[in-house]
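Report of the visiting student (M.T.), summer placement. My assignment was to run the structure pipeline on a short list of targets and document each run. The first record concerns Histidine ammonia-lyase.
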Amino acid sequence: MTNSPAPQDLQVPVELGTGPLTTDDVVAVARHGAPVRLTEAALEVIAGSRAVIEELAGDPEPHYGISTGFGALATTFIPLADRAQLQASLIRSHAAGSGPAVETEVVRALMLQRLSTMATGRTGVRPQVARTYASLLNARITPVVHEFGSLGCSGDLAPLAHCALAVMGEGPVVDADGVTRPAAEALADAGIEPLRLAEKEGLALINGTDGMLGMLVLALHDLADLVTVADLAAAMSVEALLGTDAVFAADLARLRPHPGQQASAANLRALLEDSPIIASHRDPSCTRVQDAYSLRCAPQVHGAVRDTLEHARLVALRELTAAIDNPVVTLDHRVESNGNFHGAPVAYALDFLAIAVADLASISERRTDRHLDAKRNDGLPPFLAGTPGVDSGLMIAQYTAAGLVAEMKRLAAPASVDSIPSSAMQEDHVSMGWHAARKLRRSVECLRDVLAIELLTAARSLDLRAPLRPAVGTAAVRDLLRTGVEGPGPDRFLAPEIAWVSAAVGSGAVLAAARAAVHGLH
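After the run finished, the structure tokens were exported:
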């Protein structure tokens, strides 16, 4: 994943109970290990809703999740003596994931958002349940959650159940040192008492879109940087391929008033401002009428990705304000069944982003290919090779980009249009949002590498245009790349160079170099 620099002070806790989480809160806790703190106001409202549940627990009338079974067994009344066992059994049976463990940052994001929902006072758990979740996050104890198990409806059931199992002192966890251990041992070493769940609590811990939402928030954070890196790579390609910046003019962008397009066009103008390379062919001797679409239409494509990000960000912000549980304790102390756990809103946004991200990579790969084709690169050597024929240059780097784009196109097939009924047809339409999120994470990683290959290629093309000099912004990035990757010359082992540039993109170093040279990049 892309990792922009961590916040300056990660010792300041993210407070729960003062308002909804922000996307920055999620990234700080999930990725950078910031601590969390439950406010007294949050603990009071949690205790208030718990009183409602405890009153209903003694009611001879059945209440779903309190004195009944779950899912297709919702009509089965559970005697008082068996209800603690009911909650524990729910968690144990639902902790049924399989496949490889998902990333620590995903699990931390999931736990944080479940804790945030508890802090709304709408779930009916006891304050000590919320405190225990906060304690695990602050001790950096991460339950092992598996790749498969969620259908994105009734909550991310299996992933959330694996987390609930850990707070019960069962199952494996990864401790702060990265060691996988039994939860009971890790909790004991951290001084955390395992929970014995009471009525409603097991259900409250697994009914949420927290996993898919956490992955959406992390992807949004990463893509906000990557779409600007895409603008930067495009600017370097336009310049090195002797394209024109005239098509990025502000008045032309305003003719089609999509905000994302205008932002990307502004970036391209700023990055290419006063470019000696572009100035060198801005005269009547230049016979090119129009650049290829991958150059000329970069703001339109990149801008559409930006607008898609804004839509997905709106969905995420709405979801971060939500109190998702079933049944839920309402503000007037009713306990009502509902369908708010259905992941469709998040799943659609995730799938939409996967489509946009694949297309962003696709246009980048097309620009990379133009650099390497002697019939289209305006005088550069074939494949930018040192000695064409003896050397292959960056020929196979483009193959790698093409392979990544092909994978992203497969990942762009929407998960949310699929639905496999479950729970004896009680849960007969599901969102598959967890799967949409897993696909998007892989696609974001692929995009970073595709952009790295374009940057690597465009930087070599800029060097080959010497003695002409690039613009200030593009030169700054080219110079950064030269601190880790040599310029044109005989063939070298390319994989480490691609990895180095990809890491520089992921760390934020590439974007920082551009922003230091050109202020106001979007």
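The chain has a mean pLDDT of 93. The longest strand covers residues 98-101. I thank the supervising group for their guidance throughout the placement.
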